[in-house]
TrEMBL record:
Residue ranges of domain AB hydrolase-1 in the record: 4-235
GO molecular function: hydrolase activity
Name used for this protein in its record: Alpha/beta hydrolase
Family annotation (PANTHER family): HYDROLASE, PUTATIVE (AFU_ORTHOLOGUE AFUA_2G14860)-RELATED, MONOACYLGLYCEROL LIPASE
InterPro entries, per the entry: AB_hydrolase_1, AB_hydrolase_fold, AB_hydrolase_sf
Keywords assigned by UniProt, alphabetized: Hydrolase
Entry coiled-coil feature ranges: none
Lineage of producing organism: Bacteria, Pseudomonadati, Pseudomonadota, Alphaproteobacteria, Acetobacterales
Pfam families in the record: Abhydrolase_6
Length: 251
């Protein structure tokens, strides 16, 4: 049975992939959503970097005895997937990069500094992650996402992230740059974008797909930054179709 290791973004956790569990299992796949350090039931952290996050995922894969799993990364999780593929390019059966990007640019740049300041400001003013979760969710989704039955679940997950972990993740995010590694990816890779995603714009992901040999690109109409929550049935159908065609019976 092929495992699908699912890696979340900066404001969420493994529980964000709850909608995918049943559909993956029904197809004979083993869904393995992982919490990064500081998320879920793991103790909060005040610093992180991508090599450390990748090593943590590698340790979890080894501990579980998973042989060449599929990697599915959302947002920051997609950045960790890119790091994993550079570190061990032949250790995985396929990769799905969802609502992510290949770089954040120079961490000392004006855009990056403004990005960090904007995300820290509500916390600096005394608001909690739970306080901000409803408006965070509303800002992330596209026009079709408002009808999702997973709204309350997603808001609860967004509200669970410890503030110190979120701060550490934001500081980590702006250091990311794997653009030079894209051309070396040599496993089946799907890039899945949301048409209305302003955090990982679809045109950026389409250009990214063009730099990965043989990569497939799909864009979900009317969907924002949380495609697996906003339209889970469509999301699952896209990734299962990709895996059906690329796992060559290993599932």
């Amino acid at each position: 049975m092929t495992a699908v290791v699912m890696l979340h973004g900066i404001g969420a956790g493994a529980r964000l992939f709850e909608p995918q569990r049943a559909s993956l299992a029904a197809r004979g796949l083993d869904p393995v959503p992982l919490d990064f350090p500081g998320y879920g039931t793991r103790p909060p952290v005040d610093s992180m970097d991508f090599e450390w996050l990748a090593a943590d995922v590698e340790a979890a894969i080894t501990e579980r005895g998973l042989d060449r799993p599929v990697l599915l990364g959302h947002s920051m999780g997609g950045m960790v997937v890119q790091t994993l593929l550079r570190r061990q390019p032949d250790a995985y059966a396929a990769a799905i990069l969802c609502a992510t990007s290949p770089a954040f640019g120079n961490p000392s740049g004006d855009f990056q500094q403004k990005f960090v300041a904007a995300r820290m400001k509500p916390l600096d003013e005394g608001r909690s992650m739970a306080d901000m979760a409803p408006e965070t969710f509303a800002a992330l989704i596209g026009p079709r996402g408002a009808a999702t039955p997973w709204r309350e679940h997603a808001i609860a997950v967004l509200g669970e992230t410890p503030s110190e972990t979120f701060r550490a993740a934001v500081r980590c995010l702006v250091t990311f740059d794997e653009r030079a590694s894209l051309g070396a990816i040599r496993i089946p890779t799907l890039l899945l974008a949301g048409e209305a995603d302003t955090n990982a714009p679809a045109p950026v992901m389409e250009r990214m797909a063009g730099k990965i040999p043989g990569a497939e690109y799909r864009c979900m109409a009317g969907i924002g930054h949380l495609p697996n929550i906003e339209a889970p049935e469509e999301f699952d159908a896209i990734i299962l179709n990709f895996l059906d065609r690329n796992l060559k019976g290993s599932a």
